[in-house]
Amino acid sequence: MAKSAKDYINDGDFEGALVRYETANFRWKEHWWDTLVEIYKNFKEWTKKYILDFKNKIVQIGEAITGIVYKINTLFDRGVKVCYLFKFWDSCGDIVFSKVGTTEVSVQSRATKELREYQKKFDVVGVSVESAIDCGDVDPEGAESYCRAKFIRKYPGTYLKNDRFLGVNIPVEDFNNLVADYLA
């Protein structure tokens, strides 16, 4: 007797359900996609091997962002005035929000602190440190405020307190250009 979707879900058998999804006819395709999604969300180990493309309903081999990923070359020391762009990701590899901020502690410490804080309130499993710019003698809060104001206008209705933009994947180039404009 073939396993039911409930059996796959209870067993956390993502790869078994994936075979069923890939071989399902049109009538059953949505049913098996929903099964894959439920297993993926309930058994986090699958996020280390697969990425789900929810829009196109495709399963890709690869690793979702978990923990902290640094996309910058320089990790600034304590005391350096930095304006940064972080992006927070959920267990399905989708962006939860982009965050513009400042720090004078190390970028690593700030990313760790914020990841822990947001994991308590959101389905956040990872943060990518997209950009961190040394503001020199200029208070980084000015650059942060400038970026925040520009992004509030560009992405209306997405702003959350603490400089977060819900569901927005802010382009790094836009952030870098705004900070450079402010510091010029």
Give a short synopsis of this structure.
The chain has 6 helices and 8 strands. The termini are far apart.
Write the layout of secondary structure elements.
Layout: H1 5-11, H2 14-23, H3 26-42, E1 50-53, E2 58-61, E3 67-70, E4 82-89, E5 95-103, H4 107-119, E6 126-134, H5 140-154, E7 159-160, E8 164-166, H6 172-183
Parallel strand pairs: 3-6
Antiparallel strand pairs: 1-2, 4-5, 4-6, 5-8, 7-8
Helix pairs in contact: 1-3, 2-3, 5-6
Looking at this protein, list some descriptive labels.
two-stranded antiparallel sheet; six-stranded mixed sheet; 2 domains; 8 strands; 184 residues; alpha+beta
Strand segment count: 8
Radius of gyration: 20 Å
Report the helical percentage: 40-55%
Alpha-beta content class: alpha+beta
Residues in β-strands, percent: 15-25%
The helix-strand sequence is HHHEEEEEHEHEEH
Give a short account of the largest sheet: 6 strands, mixed
- Strand order, largest beta sheet: 3-6-4-5-8-7
Spatial shape: elongated
Distance between the termini: 70 Å
How many separate domains make up the residues? 2
Whole-number mean pLDDT: 90
Low-confidence stretches: none
What's the total helix number? Answer: 6
